[in-house]
Amino acid sequence: MNTKEYIESGILESYVLGVATAGESAEVERLALEYPAIRQELDAIRNSLETYALQYEKQPPAFLKDKIMDNLFNEHKTVEQKYSKGINQTVKEDIEPREVINLNQRNESSASQRSIFKMAASWVLLALSIGANIWFFKNWKNSEEKVLALESQNQILAKEGQTLKASYQEELAILQNPDVKIIKLSGQEVAPEAKALVYFDKTKQEVYLSALSLPEVPTGKQYQLWAIVDGKPVDAGMIDSKGNILKMKSFSNAVAFAISLENTGGSTTEAGPKGAVYVMGAV
Amino acid sequence: MSKRKTIIAEDALVVLLQSKDQRGFSILYDNYSSALYGVILKIVRSEEIAADVMQDSFVKIWKNIDGYNRSKGTLFTWILNVARNTAIDRIRSQEFQNSQRNQDIDSNINVIDNQENSQFDVDAIGLKKVVENLRPEHQQMIELLYFKGYTQAEVADEFGIPLGTVKTRVKAAIVQLRQFFVQFGLVLLSAILDKWI
């Protein structure tokens, strides 16, 4: 459609002045929604007429506001007014405020029902909310404990991993050293299945013990390594742990190594091994 | 103009009014009563009747606010139309016309002149002069249609002008008004801001 022509036709002015027919008004409202140009034109016409009307603005008498607000909101005053005004009052004036008040009362009673319902609903929601909060708090506590446990476990694993890595690196370095001689200690009569390895670095005079496979140590007992030097066993150190690789005492001229089971603390070189020899091997 | 203007978003005010909230009607009254009262008084030309029409208008606003939406223009446009139509209905009612007939015509005219003079309180910004510069036939059109509730056909009948001419004049009158108000828009805006804030 041609909006310009429509605007020129003067129908918008008629509409704003309130002199358009019902059909025309409906058309204007529909077209205003559809065409921004018509909407803008309508606004401009309204503005100019309203500005024109505002020239006449005048403060109403002071009593009027209370009278109007009472009429709308205060039932009793309206009833009093109605009776004091007597029979001269027009039917229209009489009916309108009462309708308004009925509307008001209906609103109030349904409003109070609504507010009771709202209050009940609020309590239910509050109870549900508290329950949910307790449940969530418990779950949260549980989770926190689990997380702490997992964290410490994780730390232990990490430490163990590091230790293992370090000992393997150490062992690897020893094995890759061409100066190191690997001596296999084989099981003796008391434990034919037992075995162990000694890494012997003659130049650095270092002795390492590895791959221990010995029977479980009875309480009060401890394994002890001996080096055979000049035909005599010399204390080479106590075996404290089942670590991957243990550094023992230094020797440069041992010919053989052996492990015996001694009382805790071990025996001395002077006394010699007192318990049974479990494994033994020559350099 | 009221000293107690409440600044409130129009949408929020409409919600208050539609829920029949007393605060909404109080704000509506404070913000718009002088505009509504001025237009009503301009139409009915009696303070007593104007107060009565104001009351009727507020009852109508109360009853019909649910039917208001933005497609009908701003809230001010809508309530102004309610007030205007209520006032026009009153002057067209039999009761009103009977009471007017009893008054002396000359004194009536004097009263009207005095009222109109006192109502031009935006004179300070020079708007009055501009509006007076509207061509008389244009001013007459706006007076008859906007303030007396004539239809265009009634104006044509009463003044012996073809309906087409009435429509052209109405159009031209509003175009002229718009030109004035664009011209004076800034002055007017600053005056309104000065008054309202």
Automatic annotation (TrEMBL), chain A:
InterPro entries: Anti-sigma-K/W_factor, RskA_C. GO terms for biological process: regulation of translation. One of its GO terms (molecular function) is sigma factor antagonist activity. Pfam families: RskA_C. Residues 120-276 form the Anti-sigma K factor RskA C-terminal domain. GO terms for cellular component: plasma membrane. PANTHER family: ANTI-SIGMA-K FACTOR RSKA. This is Anti-sigma-K factor RskA. It comes from Arcicella aurantiaca.
UniProtKB/TrEMBL annotation, chain B:
CDD domains: Sigma70_r4. Residues 28-95, 133-179 form the RNA polymerase sigma-70 region domain. GO terms for biological process: DNA-templated transcription initiation. Keywords: DNA-binding, Sigma factor, Transcription, Transcription regulation. One of its GO terms (molecular function) is sigma factor activity. Belongs to the sigma-70 factor family. ECF subfamily. This is RNA polymerase sigma-70 factor (ECF subfamily).
